[in-house]
Amino acid sequence: METFLIRALQLIMSLSLLVIIHEGGHFLFSRLFKVRVEKFYIFFDPWFSLFKFKPKNSDTEYGVGWVPLGGYVKISGMIDESMDTEQMKQPAQPWEFRSKPAWQRLLIMIGGVLMNFLLAIFIYSMILFHWGDSYISLQDMTYGMKFNERAQEIGFRDGDILLRADEQPLERFGMDMLRNVAAEARTVTVLRDGKETEIYMPEISLLDIAKEEPMFLDILRPNVVDSVIAGGPLAIAGVQKGDSILAVNNMPVGSWNEFTEKLEGFRSDAETNGAEYAEFSLVYSHQGMRDTVAVRTDSLFMVRATSMLDYKVTTRHFNFFESFPAGVKLGVNTLKGYVNDMKYVFTKEGAKSVGGFGTIGSIFPKVWDWHRFWEMTAFLSIILAFMNILPIPALDGGHVLFLLYEIVARRKPSDKFMEYAQMVGMFLLFALLIWANFNDIMRFVF
To answer: Could you tell me the CA-to-CA distances from 404 to 117, 197, 390, 425 in Å, in that order?
Structure first.
């Protein structure tokens, strides 16, 4: 319950900030061009609002709605989600959106997207300024990578150290690396037994790779015990830090990755058979001597071993002025990666992977971590900017599309057309929202 509340609070804080900044972009350009803004709301307020306030001598009502699905600004003289068609039947007023030149209306509509992208860049810049950029270089991961069956069929071998993808140096472990190696590269160069080896890559879908268990590639962890739970069966049997796991049920294991895979298999088999746990024998080596101990899967008997602590951490620090170009580069690369991955959404499997608020909330850490919170907020700001600029009616991109048509054709689409387009767009968005959250429910239930 505590984990749920921490994630929920982070999600609400992040989305609230993004909505304020996004709608603030529309508001800023509207006021710049003297367009009246009637409402500025966080969340939607059908029938009633949780809070509202209208400053003296102001045309704008500020408030908080009760439906946490975003927010909006109601701009005078515009067909938007408020569907205020009665206002559009009245003679146009000089303070209305429809009375302004097309270029001003265009800037008003892209204001939200622009502010979200600038926010992401600013957050990334401040992350780099405050925490720097710390990572473990792939070349410093001297144990190399662990590859699944598909990767081994392609030509990879456990222990390979990744060097280059299509002659582009590979620096760090992560999603960008996986995309470069598995989904985009035609050749991958690895260091194997002290020699460079080139591997030719077939065409693979990143979506298929992302779902594979075990992963296409992972950090190879040696089968060495890092720590033992005091009073547990292994501690009682005499297993100590530094001992090596050699086999389970007489099946040799060459890495900690293989050990955890077999352990998960035992647990899954026990669950399938309706058992509370499974028993297996574990062979280990202590100071060169082999021994065997019986273990049950329901016992929390060991902390996961990791070799990451032994690797050199590379940290690049940025002063205040250096952080901004670095933040721009990080923001642009994040946007490129997200746009590139969007093609998978339009596949059958991609549609099933679409998630709603549950999926978004799950990307935040289980414990409060400001570094991770700001990273996820910047990433969501990038997503919000991109999704809103898509040429779909009811989104900013839909309005931009119609404005570009007006600039080229030198005539406006009719109000009736805009009204119908808004209704179609809202229907599509609500359908997508329902589908995404339905997927979350199905994942939770099954």
So the answer is: 21, 51, 14, 18
